[in-house]
Amino acid sequence: MTPGYLLVDGYNVIYAWPELRELGNLEHARARLVELLASYGAFRGIKVIVVFDSPATVSQPPQDIDGVTVIYATAPHQADHVIEALAHRLSGLEGLTVTVASSDSLERRLVFGSGCQRLSAVELAREVQRTLSTMNRKYGRKQPSARPVSVADRLAEPVREALRRFRPGRKT
User: Fold this and answer.
1) Chain-centre distance of CA 163, in angstroms?
2) DSSP track, 25-91
3) Which among 25, 39, 24 is positioned nearest to 129, based on CA atoms?
4) What is the DSSP letter of 93?
5) Kind and range of the H or E element at 159?
6) 63: which strand partners?
7) Peptide bond before residue 144 is cis, with ω within 30 degrees of 0
């Protein structure tokens, strides 16, 4: 597989994916997007960079979360500008494939001029779901759930039942 980069316009993708949009909380949606892209990038053998617009005026260093580089673009640099600059810089490196995921038509045209491949947010969603399904078939893993997993969900039923008996206020 050709080594490569996937550059993702974070909020553009969140608002285009029903699964993420329906979470109703941007913090949870960002975390879920990064979780999905971490699995996708690891399986595909590519480096994933997600760029979010930030209301902050002081720049923050990029963060590495589960192998995904997360960048918060601060004013006056919007996420689009950061992605375009990264796309231009990375596409000049020999032997790398650079793909930009965004449904912003202007951004897609600009990065195409740099020699990058393009995916719309919807196309990325399909590609990620296809990859997660392949991972599930190949390795027998369940796809990550959109619902947060509680500690009780991780316990075997006999253990949960034993703990219920010790719950305060419960008569034994």
Assistant:
1) 36
2) -HHHHHHHHHHHHHHHHHHHT-EEEEEEE-S-SS----EEETTEEEEEE-TTS-HHHHHHHHHHHHH
3) 39
4) S
5) helix 157-165
6) 70
7) no
Vertex 37, ends 35 and 38: CA angle to 5°?
65
Tell me, which fold does domain 4-145 have in CATH? Rossmann fold (3.40.50)
Angle CA 25–26–30, to nearest 5: 125
State the sign of the Cα–Cα–Cα–Cα dihedral 12, 13, 15, 21: negative
The 3 state secondary structure assigned to 98-151 is EEEECCCHHHHHHHHHCCCEEECHHHHHHHHHHHHHHHHHHHCCCCCCCCCCCH
**Residues 33, 38: Cα–Cα separation, whole Å:** 8
Separation of alpha carbons 54 and 37, rounded Å: 20
Tens digits of residue pLDDT in 68-114:
999 998 876 788 888 888 888 888 777 788 888 988 766 666 676 67
Query: Would you say how long the chain is, in residues?
Result: 172
> Exposed (0-12), middle (13-18) or buried (19+): which is 47, by Cβ within 10 Å?
middle
- Euclidean distance between the first and the last CA atom of the chain, given in angstroms as a whole number: 60
pLDDT in tens, 114-167: 778 889 999 999 999 999 888 888 887 555 555 555 666 667 777 777 777 777
